């Protein structure tokens, strides 16, 4: 598919559009978390557990990803476990650590909420050429790395 003509935009306009997307996304995350009976932080942790797949994260891994203390992540994992979202498993190589696994029925519940939204996003991608999607992928990947590095550098509690 050839690229469709697009209106010119400045970096400032692109940043403004990104800010609007992020703000809408944050509100949406709050609403979705409420629908599935979690807080946004708990839902975010659960998403990281799902993303990890078979490479089960440790509590420390999750604390680092969500930028909370290991004590705080223990509370998050307690809530997720009580709600039936995760199970804790002993680390096969280090008995002092635990690994966190997603419960399949909880993954299905969360995916049920997200799938209609992702279907709409997929439909939106249909308006872009493969080259444009490659640019979007590159930008999102690089911006995510930049954001993570910024958080590590400026926002990590000491």
TrEMBL record:
PROSITE patterns: HTH_MARR_2. It holds the Pfam family MarR_2. Residues 1-145 form the HTH marR-type domain. SUPFAM superfamilies: Winged helix' DNA-binding domain. It comes from the Bacteria. This is MarR family winged helix-turn-helix transcriptional regulator.
């Amino acid at each position: 598919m050839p690229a469709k003509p697009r209106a010119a935009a400045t970096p400032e306009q692109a940043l403004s559009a990104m800010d609007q997307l992020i703000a809408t996304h944050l509100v949406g995350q709050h609403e979705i978390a409420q629908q599935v009976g979690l807080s946004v932080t708990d839902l975010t942790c659960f998403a990281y557990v799902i993303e990890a797949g078979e490479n089960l994260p440790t509590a420390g891994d999750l604390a680092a990803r969500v930028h909370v203390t290991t004590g705080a992540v223990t509370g998050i994992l307690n809530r997720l476990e009580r709600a039936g979202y995760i199970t804790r498993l002993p680390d096969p190589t280090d008995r002092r650590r635990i690994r966190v696994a997603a419960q399949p029925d909880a993954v299905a519940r969360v995916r049920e909420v997200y799938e209609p939204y992702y279907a709409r996003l997929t439909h939106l991608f249909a308006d872009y050429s493969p080259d444009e999607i490659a640019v979007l992928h590159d930008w999102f990947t690089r911006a995510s790395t930049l954001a993570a590095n910024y958080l590590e550098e400026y926002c990590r509690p000491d």
